[in-house]
Design a protein that fits this description.
This is UspA domain-containing protein. It comes from Haloarcula vallismortis ATCC 29715. The protein starts with a strand and ends with a strand. The chain has four helices and five strands; from the N terminus they run βαβαβαβαβ. α1 links the parallel β1 and β2. The chain has one domain (8-32, 42-120). A five-stranded parallel β-sheet has the order 3-2-1-4-5, sandwiched between helices. The protein is globular. α1 runs parallel beside α2. Helices cover 36% and strands 23% of the residues.
Length: 124
């Protein structure tokens, strides 16, 4: 069984993950998807809730587990990795807002600290 952990703070990152997974996975295969949304103190308060709703609807055929956490994204994502021990981590290059560009600090930190495959999803 393969476990995927989607770390998200926005609907844009979650939608990109859904696109990525829907084209690569068969719902009949044995795998788990866990979507962890972190309420970032610097982002609008509803973003995390909207992100998990997108995971539930866009990935419904895969029956993802969803969690919403409070705190700094890096700390909460690392804690989720420890708890779920995923085979792959799916992240966005940045928080997914219109004013974001390039690879953000959380993504850079995860790429240097996580000892498993990290998929950086392209955002539209």
């Amino acid at each position: 069984m393969t476990t995927f952990l989607l770390a998200t703070t926005s609907v844009h990152v979650t939608a990109a993950a859904a696109d990525y997974l829907q084209h690569r996975l068969d719902p009949a295969d044995d795998h788990d998807i866990v979507a962890v949304a972190v309420r970032d103190p610097d982002a609008p308060s509803r973003d995390a809730g909207d992100a998990v709703n997108v995971a539930r609807s866009r990935l419904a055929s895969f029956m993802p587990a969803t969690e919403t956490r409070e705190g700094t994204p890096l700390t909460e994502i690392l804690a989720a990795i420890d708890e779920h021990d995923p085979d792959e981590l799916l992240i966005g290059p940045h928080r997914g807002t219109d004013d974001s560009d390039g690879v953000g600090s959380t993504a850079r930190d995860l790429l240097t600290r996580v000892a498993r495959p990290v998929i950086v999803l392209p955002l539209p």
